[in-house]
């Protein structure tokens, strides 16, 4: 069944904050299959719209949506941020907490990459030392093999030294 854009938008608005209506409930109320509603929500999310899962409050928001909310409110003053939060059923403190979490995640990533870089450098040094040691041992082994070969040849030419 084909639905008009107006109807689709009206239903999507019911999924958005502050309503946060679960898809199962909307499907029953609107007479639209849940699969269609899930598809609409997925398409709207792909277009960048903030559509949390059906739970009320920020618990239904995915990480991507929380990050989008942080980005959207980054340039807003306190009054504008409060208005944004009212429209979406949030508290300004939640936006601040999400922003802090984003900053900490970035700092953690920087620390992990720095640690990884240090480990990589240590591994390179270790590999270089091991290669140097391997080359030294291969040289010693080649020298020992040459000496054994010469000793066998000398014994073959002059015989065992025990005849005398």
Describe the structure.
The protein is mostly helical and about 160 residues long. About 75% of the residues lie in helices and about 0% in strands. The chain is built from 6 helices and no strands. Helix 4 crosses helix 6. The longest helix has about 70 residues.
The structure class reads mainly alpha
Radius of gyration: 35 Å
Number of strands: 0
Mean pLDDT: 83
Main sheet summary: none
Overall 3D shape: elongated
Name the beta content range: under 5%
* DSSP helix fraction: over 70%
* Gap from first CA to last CA: 111 Å
Number of helices: 6
Unreliable stretches (pLDDT < 50, length at least 5) are none
Order of helices and strands: HHHHHH
């Amino acid at each position: 069944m084909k639905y008009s854009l107006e109807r689709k938008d009206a239903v999507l608005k019911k999924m958005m904050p502050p309503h946060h209506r679960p898809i199962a409930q909307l499907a029953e109320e609107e007479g639209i299959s849940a699969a269609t509603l899930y598809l609409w929500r997925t398409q709207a999310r792909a277009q960048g719209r903030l559509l949390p899962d059906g739970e009320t409050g920020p618990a239904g928001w995915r990480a991507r949506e929380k990050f989008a909310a942080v980005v959207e409110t980054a340039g807003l003053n306190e009054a504008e941020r409060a208005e944004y939060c009212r429209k979406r059923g949030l508290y300004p403190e939640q936006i601040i907490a999400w922003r802090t979490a984003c900053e900490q995640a970035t700092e953690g990533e920087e620390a992990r990459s720095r640690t990884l870089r240090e480990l990589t450098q240590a591994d390179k040094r270790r590999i270089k030392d091991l290669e140097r040691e391997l080359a030294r041992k291969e040289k010693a082994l080649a020298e020992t093999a040459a000496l054994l070969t010469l000793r066998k040849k000398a014994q073959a030419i002059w015989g065992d030294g025990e005849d005398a």
